[in-house]
Amino acid sequence: MTTPGLDLDKLVNQPENWNFSDARQLYAGVDLGTYKAITIIIDETGKPRAARMRRAKVVRSGLIVDYAGAQNIVSEMIKEMRAASQLPIEKGATSYPPQTEYANIDATRYILEGVGLEVLNVLDEPTAANQILKLENGAIVDVGVGTTGIAVIKDGKIVFADDEATGGVHLSLVLAGNYKISYEEAEEVKIDHQKSHEILPIVRPVIEKIASIVDACLQQFNDLTEVCLVGGTCELEGFTEIVQKALSIKTFRPEFPQFTTPLGIALSCLDENGGHS
Fold this sequence. Notes:
25% strand, 2 domains
């Protein structure tokens, strides 16, 4: 199974490294987040061929609030990838945060259909992430910018899912106040890996608060063996260790955790289209 790694790292927003040669079929995985939209193109074997990430403010608290804006962003990303590919990109999948299916399933499907994609799957984000992680008895905690998704998995199946209104935005707000800079500047400071040790003490209370919310959700499940953190926010060095201390459960993150869910979305196309096992 393909996993997020160096190949994706070299593909994101680097069209010069996109390579569609020798592929027989292409699939798009589209992930619309609170402040970012990510699209990953894979081939029939699950190998990533192209990836695009861009800023977007079309989602709030897990819900699409700017449908036209979301449509335009997805259209631009797919158009750019189609222009670079010798093969057509005609099939895809997308996802929604836990507990938001009532508002998002149709909206996200229509957005993909609006750019000419046959929608093979619309799945919840934890299920998408577990396409990669393959957890059997644990929890997936997806720390996004605006929300944190929490899913408990037993025997490989999701038995509990929730979405809490907390995430990376709160880290950025604390940094903005501490350094007396704009929110946008604080976002740049937060993702600067060279400043991780400097900012970790500043945002530690926020991370501990996120961890306490996760812990409260997991209290009813006393036999979990591991917790996996995904989402861009948990890329901050030291984040995982703070959460593990609060949960007292083995806690880890995959390589490039912000791409776990979108790649899992794309890989779900293979199951729906009779692809590789």
